[in-house]
Design a protein that fits this description.
- This is Pilus assembly protein PilN.
- By secondary structure, the protein is of the alpha+beta class.
- 64% of the residues lie in helices and 20% in strands.
- It contains 3 helices and 4 strands; from the N terminus they run H-E-E-H-E-E-H.
- The protein has helices spanning 9-108, 134-146, 180-186, and strands spanning 113-121, 124-131, 150-160, 169-177.
- A 4-stranded antiparallel sheet has the order 1-2-4-3.
- The longest helix has 100 residues, at 9-108.
- 10% of the residues are buried.
Length: 187
């Protein structure tokens, strides 16, 4: 008699294919999970490294900002010191100018002219006084124009005031104080 296999071979083959399929799907899922976890770990490592670099850069930027502030402070102090040095140098250079101004006033004031006030603002000098006549004021102005240390005389006011009974005219005169070498370079 012929042997007939009554066992459900199709069911067994189906079960075997299901197991193989399930194993293949499980292996694929496991592989996808491993690749996904590996990729995630790799990306997290890259992000951590970049964050570490960013933190180092921020620290360096902070350190450099502090240095920049210090440099700006030093530059400001330097500018202040240079300004002070210039002022001191100008004061040192102008010390003898007051002496020259009064020397020139003594030399340029003619007889019959009496000064009552002398005021200086920078290089501009203004004098007030009394004179016996307008001709004496004119002589004073000519002497100023001929002087080496003062020039540019300008008569501001001249009035005949005889309130005191002295017969003197009141005048106000302005001129510029110069250094002899300045006057030579101006012309």
């Amino acid at each position: 008699m012929a042997r007939i296999n009554l066992l459900p071979w199709r069911d067994q083959a189906r079960r075997l294919r299901r197991r193989q399929m399930f194993g293949a799907v499980l292996a694929a899922v496991a592989l996808v999970l491993l690749v996904g976890l590996g990729t995630r770990h790799w990306i997290e490592t890259i992000i951590a490294d970049q964050n570490l670099r960013n933190m180092r850069l921020q620290q360096e930027i902070s350190r450099l900002n502090i240095r920049i502030r210090e440099i700006r402070d030093l530059e400001q102090k330097k500018a202040d010191l240079l300004s002070r040095m210039n002022v001191i140098q100008q004061l040192q250079e102008s010390r003898p100018e007051v002496v020259h101004l009064f020397d020139e006033l003594v030399l340029t004031v003619p007889d019959g002219v009496y000064l009552t006030r002398v005021e200086q603002k920078e290089s501009r000098v203004e004098v007030e006084g009394r004179a016996q006549s307008n001709a004496r004021v004119s002589a004073f102005m000519r002497n100023i124009a001929a002087s080496a240390w003062v020039d540019d005389p300008q008569l501001l006011v001249i009035e005949n005031k005889d309130q005191t009974g002295t017969g003197l005219s009141h005048f106000r005169l302005g001129f510029r104080q110069v250094r002899p070498d300045e006057e030579a370079t101006d012309t």
